[in-house]
Design goal:
Length: 461
């Protein structure tokens, strides 16, 4: 069972600021645990640093603290229903972030206290030191069954996104297939692309274009979710489809196409919509999600999932408009990035709430509401052209690469707007509304699997 620790950028920055200090520094990291199809994910909530007055001794090679250095943090963890991980730094030395014999003894002392004081049956440790970007680490997670599991991956989601393997993990050498990629952004980024787990909701024009670009870039772990079957009009946009595929599930058509490109690809297909709880739960194992669906209800779920699970979402929208004579006169698109500190899709007014409510109804109830004028009509075919869906998919993949590599401006916008008919691109950044679930003060970032799941009610079939 693999264990991934996910940290918002501000917590990771606090840790990175302390790793260069010439003496050990301690703290308590509060996390929520969620079990996913790809392993355990520990969602960082906050970190409480040991108060200076609580240090009895503090050197490059060790420290001694009074119980007052961690007991307040354990009380906070109990109130937050979080797990407490003991954290400390290892300044420059031969061990790096690897635990010493003294650290093992400290764990024996602290583990029971941490469990009792927090009311949790779990415990964990994290050690950080300088050397990597933003720091090197090792960690262990003690699960309820008594197993000690290594924390293998650290996923930092802030302005930049960084996937860090535990110190000492051997990275594979990229094959010659990716030589041109490595020349552009180096072997480390190439390895990260191969390790990321990426979900794509929607396997149509934008989703299939995103998927093919990701696989050709070197992504090797994909989750595809779509409830629809391929229609004749889809063949003009869905990558890998042919007229012979009409009637097949879109995710299966796309899966077969992607496996032909990369036989070593690990791909999971889900025939269903993200508006169903079991489908949304299946997405929790992803490191990030591309939202390529055209339904507002699905976007509502992805917006919440990003907050509760600390999962970055890159949401894509395309709208073509026509003039009086029915000729194309507008090509509008957007790429909106959801991550800690960014406004959600609701705060940005990117979701039609009335339409989302109608999409969640059964077909019979939806028809009744439409007939009575209480809901918008649904199911109308919208214009779509492969050149435009592909262009927007490329802009979305660019967002991922920039967040990983950092070739863009220092403060990245959280939304890119494209007006292709005017050959214009603009960007913006929006902050969460006060009191909304995506606002830091609401306490929902990293809330995990609390019930009801994602804090909402779910439709039943």
């Amino acid at each position: 069972m693999s264990v991934t620790l996910i940290l918002p950028g501000d917590i990771a920055s606090e840790i990175a600021e302390r790793t260069p200090l010439p003496y050990e520094t301690g703290g308590v990291l509060l996390v929520r645990r969620i079990s996913t199809p790809t392993g355990i994910r520990l969602l960082g909530r906050t970190i409480c640093w040991v108060d200076e007055a609580a240090y009895r001794e503090r050197t490059q090679f060790g420290m001694a603290i009074t119980p007052e250095g961690y007991l307040p943090a354990l009380a906070l963890a109990e109130a937050d229903q979080s797990i407490a991980l003991w954290f400390h730094t290892h300044p420059a030395g031969p061990l790096g972030p690897h635990p010493s014999d003294a650290d093992a003894e400290v764990d024996k002392v602290l583990s029971e206290t941490f469990r009792i004081r927090t009311g949790s049956d779990c415990y964990g440790t994290l050690i950080a030191s300088g050397g990597d970007t933003p720091f090197a680490f090792t960690g262990r997670f003690y699960d309820p069954d008594g197993h000690i599991l290594p924390i293998e991956r650290l996923w930092v989601v802030g302005d930049r996104w960084r996937l860090i393997q535990a110190h000492g993990t051997e990275r594979g050498v990229p094959t010659g297939m990716f030589d041109r990629n490595v020349r552009a952004f180096g072997s480390a980024i190439q390895s990260i692309l191969g390790d990321l787990v990426i979900a794509i909701t929607g396997a149509g024009g934008t989703g299939s274009a995103v998927a093919e670009q990701l696989v050709r870039l070197g992504v090797r772990h994909l989750i595809l979710a779509d409830a629809d079957h391929l229609s004749a009009s889809n063949v003009t946009r869905v990558y890998g489809s042919t007229p012979a595929d009409v009637g097949r599930p879109k995710v299966e058509v796309l899966r077969d196409h992607l496996l032909a490109i990369a036989p070593d690809l690990e791909i999971r297909t889900i025939i269903g919509m993200a508006t169903l709880q079991d489908v949304a739960a299946a997405l929790t194992g992803a490191d990030l999600i591309f939202g390529c669906t055209d339904d507002n209800a699905g976007r509502l779920v992805l917006s919440r999932l990003s907050t509760w699970l600390l999962t970055p979402v890159i949401d894509i929208g395309v709208l073509l408009t026509s003039g009086i004579e029915g000729l194309l006169d507008g090509i509008h698109a957007r790429v909106t990035t959801l991550a800690p500190g960014h406004a959600c899709l609701l705060c940005r007014n990117r979701i039609d709430v009335a339409r989302a409510a109608a999409e969640l109804q059964t077909p019979e109830e939806r028809k009744r509401l439409v007939d009575e004028g209480y809901a918008p009509a649904l199911g109308q075919a919208e214009p779509a052209v492969v050149a435009f869906t592909t262009a927007v998919a490329a802009a979305a993949v660019n967002e991922l690469l920039d967040r990983l590599i950092g070739y863009g401006p220092p403060e990245r916008p959280s939304e890119t707007l494209l007006r292709l008919h005017e050959r214009e691109i603009s960007t913006n950044h929006a902050h969460p509304r006060e009191g909304h679930y995506c606002h830091p003060g609401a306490g929902k970032w990293g809330a995990g699997g609390e019930q009801p799941f994602l804090g909402q009610l779910w439709p039943t079939l």
